[in-house]
Amino acid sequence: MPDNSDYRAPRPPPKSPDLQKFGVPYGSRARMILLYLQTQALRTGSPEVELGPSLNAWMKRMNVPLGGKSRDLIREQANRLSACILTFYYHNRMGRGFEKDSIIKGGFSFAGGIGGDQQPRLWEDSVRLGDMFFHALMESPVPLLEAALREISNKSMALDIYIWLAYLLPTLAQDKHIEWKALHKQFGAGFDVERFFRRHFIEQIKTAAAVYPGRHA
Domain boundaries in the chain? Predict the structure, then answer.
């Protein structure tokens, strides 16, 4: 039997000092960044979206503060969105399948990293949306009012409900019954108990309905 007293397991490769891990995007800031990306891609018909001053100006119009902690939170959520991977499921006559793609496929920053107002940029100067994400966006656009988004820009669930209503209601030819169980599954990730979710959902859907098209003169 060989003597393994001098054997030493190989060391793992050193971690790159530039390697960072990001969690899942969350909160109203991530939603507003994503809404900006989708709005601009639909407006131009291109997966290439310019950021920098354009993103800053849009955030200001949406009543999202850009200084201090809010700026750091926006930057963090931008990084989380950049690292996010989506799984698209589909089925047809041939069977079922899935494909994975990212929301953000790539980005570019000009040298210097300082915006025209001499403040650090929140993100890259431009990004390129993932192919499948961009295709799905162009195939099924949802009309949204900036005036409505501005009023609920700091309310995560109200934003989700407003977008859901904007997608669902124009397709309905008659009343549709939706069970609380289905609503809890779709919107209640942070609520273990359904009755607590119901109370919060009722408040938030009232907020979303108040800014829904038709309520604006």
Answer: 24-141, 144-217
